[in-house]
Structures
1.
Amino acid sequence: MNEPVRNAHALLRLSYHQFELVDRGMDGTSPPTLDAAHANGLVAAQRGAAVVLASIHTGYVDLSVDLHDHAPEPDTAPWDDVVEISLDAPHGEVRAAGLMSNPPQGLPVLTHAGPGTYRVRVHVRGRDTAVDQVATDPVEFYRLSLWPAPAAPTVIHKQTDHYGATLRARALSHPLTHDTPETVLPIRSDHD
């Protein structure tokens, strides 16, 4: 079994249905929100940044992180959706934060082995609880598992929540009109 080299937990404040994983120096270059996140209903990345989609509009989510040296076995039982992507971290200082928010206290740099490419496995449960609402107490729970690894295609481990299905259906009805999934386009909510 691949035990984490580090794990941590915090409450993360988010807005506009999303939070980011952003490498130092990359937060001013282009928004890390991608239409590609709608394709799997949960997460997408571009060089130096990723976006994770939440169903609450604004508020707090419960976030835990596990940092590994090698890929851990998938643990899907307690989660509604589990999606794994690659993230290129050129500076090696990726942190989780909400839009227009500072990273929460207690979370380490997520790219613990320094600059390079990582796999990010995003686990979530509770997104069908308070869709489009403000959550002062967490109703959505996320776990991020990261480890250094070469770039690879997205892996869908589990997809069962209604909110993710809605996002995937939206992506199918409005497919990307660009050459690559890395094209940056802001995600817009019906409530923005």
Note: The chain has one domain: 6-173.
2.
Amino acid sequence: MRNIAPVVALIFALLWTGSEAAAQRRPDGRIVNGREANEGEFPYQLSLRRLTVHICGASVLDGSWAITAAHCIDGHENQPQEFTLRLGSVKRASGGSLMPVRTIYKHPSYDSRDMNFDVALLRTQPGALTMDPNVSPIGLPESGEPIEENLYAVVSGWGYMSSTESVLSSVLKYTTVQTVNQEKCHNDLRYHGGVTEAMFCASARNTDACQGDSGGPLTAQGRLIGIVSWGVGCADPYYPGVYTRLSHPSIRRWVRLLTKL
């Protein structure tokens, strides 16, 4: 059996406690109480794998570029040969295609202590990600575009299915959440470090993204508005999930500079 200790370390080594924090913020990662996706329903969804083991979600931006959370690759961005992407399948461990990652770019302002600017880009060989007929890219918001309060959005992934069982889902799952007022988001999480303008919150009753979904997509109105980043607990009514804000000007400029998208 393959030793997956390095992968477990990658996911859990990034726990952080702020000076006022009563508990640790942690990389988010499971779809709790979600629904199973049908083949072709999320054609932009990717499984990011390190040493053949699923560690995070990711999304297709075009034929050569994918996007994920920086904490998924932090400390390993100089070893892209360790990473592959499974695409074109709702099954975590089979189907679709496996593509090697050629280059990893972590946002230059990413801070593992507070998860700020939690975004990374993955480059494959040109056109590799759209060779599969079951794959299509997802668009990005414009720079500075606001996220409306109470906007319905969909989050998807293969992460743990409950807060008590550390078992990844074999089939892609998804759920619907609503975006949260930014001031309320910050206040709800103030004892866990709060949120920055490069983050936003979304939540729903009894369902959530919460290890394994990190880096995956949050979409609304046909566009990728967020990346699963961190949280306190899972599907906890007192704590919304936190996502990387892809319309943040620093993030959007950086993505455009590298990908031209």
Note: The two ends are 41 Å apart (CA to CA).
3.
Amino acid sequence: MREPHPFSTDFTWGVATSAFQIEGAWAEDGKGPSIWDAFCHQGGKIIDGSTGDVACDHYHRYREDVDLISSLNVDAYRFSMAWSRVQPEGRGAWNEAGFDFYDRLLDALQEKGLGAHLTLYHWDLPQALQDHGGWLNRDTAYRFADYAAEVARRFGDRIDAIATHNEPWCSANLGYGNAQFAPGIADKKSAIQVSHHLLLSHGLAMQAMRATGTTAKLGIVLNQWTADPATTSEADRAMAELEYARSVQWFMDPIFKGRYPELALRAHGEHGPEVLAGDFGIIGQPLDFLGVNYYFRAYCSAETPPRTPQGGQGYTDMGWEIYPQGLTELLLALKREYALPPIYITENGMANADSLIDGRVPDSARIAYISQHLAALAAAMEQGVDVRGYFLWSLLDNFEWNSGYAKRFGIVHVDYATQQRTLKDSAIWYRDFIAGQRQVPA
């Protein structure tokens, strides 16, 4: 007898990527430079000294990659558009050659019966806008809305879902807070103001896209985590509450409650954002869906050195704790605190030190990771959380931001010298798991 199926037959299974991490073709067919092109080319910014100039060469190999996606039994593909590929300056003229690429990609997906879930912004701002202040300049939010409207006007009847932003927490805190990511600025006040402009741009884009009459579901993708105190001490509990407030609640409260969390505002003090009248009304546009990216929890210890996390399942190659039960805990917490739209798990996966051995990539650790997180997801759904789909990160090994090509998140191995793709054991497991979910229980 088969085990009960926790996922409905209309649950969406997918894989995910982002433009800069896989496309390559960084200066072809009229594409303008992005902040990540500039960041990589500065030298000394990427751990392995690499760039995203070629990456997985998806720009030229997209048909091969769509065939791979189709072979995995998934329903949908989540990908992002490179803003500077379709609008090199981030304002003004559109680049038809860039739009043609995404038109061909959508055709290829449609031919295979695959749904398209598009992200408008996955961290690769046109460098021309950065030259005018980037996300620190409030005007960039309005330029983003123009871009969103044009994409929705052209493709809005061919795309299942459009997310405005992927993980604005990273864009603000890693791009402007500690300089780990492009554009490489380290200034706390700037990071907090950027987070507000990113949220403002989200709301403006939602309004602009809805005005086009698009049939796509519209939403945003946020990276989120629980924050657990290491002990019952007052200091550890206070650390955990603040961590949750300035990460999860900082982006959720403006969208769903029309304000920033007071605890985080007090902690930010003089670094708090400038908010103009009407901003929260713009930010709080109704969502058709909320995308949740989950990888780890925050484990908060005020001790020096901090206490080692307890209850996890080890660590990924990124050094992130494997804590699948945190996904259940997070989703239940969100359900208690907010009036949520349907949720998609838009990213979940692990970096693993994979090797190609005799034509095969044995990655049992990744299989265990995915299986445990799907069990945690099912547990949340059984307790009433409305989750409509799961997108595994990532389809391909790719350019992992400031780690370059040193970290492999893909369920498909990429030999960067030859661009040969090889299904890892985890890809075969995921394919077969999805097939099993579609069978009618005996």
Note: The chain has one domain: 16-437.
